[in-house]
Amino acid sequence: MTTTRHTSEPQNIPVGAAAPRLCVVTFGCQMNKYDSSLVEGRFRRSGYGTTSSVEDADVVIFNTCSVRDHAEERTWSWVGELKQLKKRRPDMVIGLMGCMAQRVEKEAFKRAAHIDLVAGTRQFQHLPQMVEEVRARRADSSLSRSDERVAFTDMAAEVPVDRTGEIWTGGRQAYMAVMRGCALSCTYCVVPMTRGGVQSRSIPQLVEEARWHADQGVKVLTLLGQTVNSYGEDFSVPLEGEPSGTGRQGREGLGDLLRALQEVPGLERIRMITLHPSYATRALAEAMRDCDKVDRFLPLPAQAGSDPVLKRMKRAYNLDLYRKRADTLRSVLPDLELGSDWIVGFSGETEEDFVGSQRFLEEQQFIVNYIFKYDERPLTKAAGFPDDVPEAIKKERHKRLMETSERVQRARFEQWCGRTEQVFLEAVSPRDANILQGRSVHGLSVSVAGGEELLGTKVPVILDECTAYGFSGRLAKDTASEDLACKDTVRK
């Protein structure tokens, strides 16, 4: 097996020939979903059709995740299930892409001999050419099975340029990667090793892509990045009029991008995931304030409520600095809601450390919380730390922090009950065709009775009743204000 750089365009399918079919199976984050859409676009340009069935596909690509062991094991389980199918259909091409593919590289061929190709996180633009190369090598009778395989995981290569014409949206919402990689070095996180350092796309290129999305009918655009608010940190040229060496203040940043996207006709909502507290600046908050299309909700993971744990995690802030960042954001945007991720059971976490997480969650009144048990990952610095919190204690702390989150969330939801929120209606409820589901500008999940003609529109909804995960409400135009079921309250 050799590693080859693929640069030529794949050959299109001959006229009259049956179009081969591609199936992309995606695991993990929203960035992976976005990358999968780019891959589908690349293959469509080469004459492929797409299918959601691996049994019907000629090419199956697994877009993998390496953040947690469970995600990797799910991928290997799926890959293993294709072994017999590959025996029946030896012309099928099976490949891996994404973070796990980057991490395991050629070892994938040892674990699953029926895999044909491996593409790293910065090489997926070459997948159509890689498939062609696999087929060309199969046709060469002088090559052994091991020589038929193709791997391309060069981390030095540039992130592929996203061409708008290749992106398949097919709806009123779309994702757009504004940057990739991470310049931080959290000890538990594998992302810097699998995604590389920060690479930001230019504002003109992103505005062009956003306009393309809007022309296709997209109303809600979610900006993606491993640390999306570090956008522009890698730009080497200061803004005009700024002296060299001024750091981030002299470069275009996320606030500049938001202001540019605010002017894109047709876009109604702009969302962002995920942010890091180190880059949560006043400049960002002021840009959000000035751009009414930007949601008043930010995922700003704290991860832990203990300074010793944060130091071992190498999160680049302590609790006091997080408070200052959050206070700065809220001073500019008084109605801003924050969400957080949490890790329980990290190396060395004591009961006192864990109680600190409960207290910090309550103090900051996070309206959304995603809580995970610590899962040691290969290649990370924390893999060398003792995994000294027993699994039973991890489970117990996970349960307790979930209970804290639910209690805080319920109290916060009750404060919202009775208010009128602008809600973008996104989907029909899978349980009731007469119920539409959406998300408010403050990140609240809302269900409301309505017809499908309202899908893709922004409507005022009175939040009548809070549930475990959101609200049920009524269209405000159908209800007089004096009939509100709940008294409007303000956050204290």
Describe the fold and architecture.
With 492 residues, the protein is an alpha/beta fold. The protein has three domains: 151 residues, Rossmann fold, CATH 3.40.50.2300; 127 residues, Transcription Regulator spoIIAA, CATH 3.30.750.210; 67 residues, Nucleic acid-binding proteins (OB fold (Dihydrolipoamide Acetyltransferase, E2P), Beta Barrel), CATH 2.40.50. The longest helix is centred in the last third of the chain and has 26 residues. The N terminus and C terminus are likely disordered.
Describe this protein with a few key phrases.
OB fold (Dihydrolipoamide Acetyltransferase, E2P), alpha/beta, 5-stranded mixed barrel, 492 residues, Transcription Regulator spoIIAA, disordered C terminus, Rossmann fold, 20 strands, 7-stranded parallel sheet
